[in-house]
Amino acid sequence: MILGKLRMAVGWAVAAIAVSLWLLSCTYTPDQKFVTPIQPPPSHIVATVDITSPDLGDPFPLDWLTVFSLRVGSDKPIRQVGVKVNGRQVDPGNPAGPVFPNDSKEVRFQLNPNDFPDGVHEVVVTISLDTQSGSLLNKLGGEYYLLEKKFNISVNRALPNLTPFTVGMENGFMTLRWTVPNERKLDYEISTYYLIPGGPNFIDRKIFSNESGTVYVDSGFVGGNVRYHVAASNFANRNFYPAVEKKLSPVKFLFQTDANKAGTISWLQTVPHAIVTLVNSEGSRTVPITQEVLLADTLFLGDKRTYRVFLHRNGYAKQTFDTTISISSHPGLPVFRDVKMLPAQSKLMVMGQSNTYRLSIPSMTREDSLSRHTAGSPALQLVVSENAQHGVYMHPNGGPVLINPLNFSQRQSFAPYVLDPFGVGRVILTNGLSSVSNGGLLGLSFLYNGATTGAVADITADLNVDPYAGVIWKDSANAAMPVFSPNGQYFIIKSRTRPFDLVYHKNGSSWDSLGQMPTGAKFFRGGSSTEVVSIGSAFVDVFDVGPPPDASGNFHSLRSLNYMSFFGGQNVVQTNYDPVSQSFYVETRDARNYSTLFIYSITSFSRFAKAKAFTPPSVPNTVKHIYTGGFHFLSTGFVESIP
After folding, report:
1. pLDDT for 337-346, tens place per residue?
2. How far is Cα 365 from Cα 348, in angstroms, rounded to an integer?
3. What is the dihedral of CA 357, 360, 363, 365, to 10 degrees?
4. CA distances from 612 to 103, 142, 167, 275 (A)
5. pLDDT tens-place string over residues 7-55
């Protein structure tokens, strides 16, 4: 609070004498009147002067040309304002209209730091208030109240050393904090860069002012590797400070699949007000982060899917968090052409593109390989005996290669040939394998006189005999390959003239025709069983070739199932039988190349499992699904357990 003191102009006494002399020289007739004399103003009034802007400290750091605003608390009007610095009158400037508008109690003036040297300076503001007494002296300007306001300013052209910048997430936003000594009022320039492969990527530049206790909130940051370049300046200088960096992934994305291989991407809400965009081969989808889950698509089994996930806030598209999620269904196996289960040994044989591997199950751990034997050439077929004593794969040049499934160091090429009608040995070009019995009888086909011919060869015979008539049975007019029983006592082959499959029984060194059954894909059930599984275009039947056929030589079905009645109108692309699990399975595929395996018990025909499968649309006929021994395999390398 400031008490205004009354100041009167010099000359009150002189004025009184002059008036008296003038009255003595005049004659007048007095009228009887009463005149109220002018009362002098009070010697003191109650008044306040408050600085409303800027927020003053003492001393106030004058870092910029600054406009000061003072509020005068009094009922008397302002008549005049004076500003002195260190006792010297300065031009207060006129930044916002009159220095003291008649209709306002606000006083404004500005100070320029360029007008002063470095150091602390005293500022004195004098304000004259009208007494409003109405006296002649008041009207002549010699009667007023005088108010004073004093404060100090500090001018320092050198910029301060800021405290180290701290950077981190606060309430979901990237925040920089630092402090300024001596309450300096500086301008700050913060440039944001994302550190990406290839170098920094400029995002934005912000210029702002703030006092001590400074904070900068990067409202667009949603994750990634970010760098902030900071510069501070005052009226005279500009300094760059060490850059600060932060690498952060504020959202953890999780890819999950359900039993049908439908994929979803989920996340935790750690970035407020963000938007999530998923981009894959099927296009893009955008949802708010509050949705917390986004449907992806069905996984390519045994393959990899790549998703790009973008995270950003509205209005900050340049600060997009761009991450790539590569999803693999854990192939576990190399890309392969065929697999054969060795259940008694808990092993699996995998015929790859150019290698053959043996793995332990269920861990699928590789034991050894034949890569040095195949010389980079892709194998074509693989057959293994039920007792795991014999293995044969097709060399791409047409010759069978004999291997010991349990000892890959034992390998021998097999080039069988036959005697022609003139008794001349002729090497045969093998072009297919069907099965090999526990005793070493191999079902195959070869080109003979320009036609494909079904045959039986004994791979246990002495391969060094010359000439070697390794083929002990052939049907020169039949393109089908014989399918052997595990014990080697039976084989079945399609008739060359009738719509039946013929059953042969071994009789010493010859084969006797035993009977016939309806045509279909034939599989011996396995073990010591004489049952035969026959899968046709609509039915699956089980026959027994142990008992003799009827008088007409026909074997009759023991049990039958019309499996196509379950899949009316669906695209059935595969039916197969697995002797290891004693089950048969059906694969259906829809227009999008999504597939499903339906697995049935061969004894009860009840369905006990279902597996989702997938074939890439670009190669719908090259990906192979196999079910054996409780595992579902995909030729791209995918494997999953389906007990």
Report:
1. 889 999 999 9
2. 10
3. -40
4. 84, 103, 48, 32
5. 433 333 233 323 333 333 344 444 554 444 555 666 677 677 777 788 7
Structure tokens given for 246:
């932060």
| Residue 61, helix vs strand vs coil | strand
DSSP letter at 181 equals G
- Give the percent of the chain with pLDDT over 70: 77
Residue whose structure tokens are 């005088």: 146
Instruction: Quote the tokens at residue 520.
Output: 């279909």
Question: Are 615 and 604 in contact, with CB atoms under 8 Å apart?
Answer: no
Q: In what order do the strands lie in the sheet with 400-404?
A: 382-384, 391-394, 400-404, 407-413
225-236, pLDDT tens digit by residue?
899 999 999 999
What is the distance between the alpha carbons of residues 206 and 224, in angstroms, rounded to a whole number? Answer: 19
**How sure is the predictor about 322, in pLDDT bands with cuts at 50, 70 and 90?**
confident
Is residue 257 a contact partner of residue 265, using CB atoms and an 8 Å limit?
no
Mean pLDDT (the chain, rounded): 79
Instruction: Please say whether the beta carbons of 635 and 337 come within 8 A.
Output: yes
Structure tokens at 62: 């004058």
82: left (phi over 0), alpha (psi -120 to 50) or beta: beta
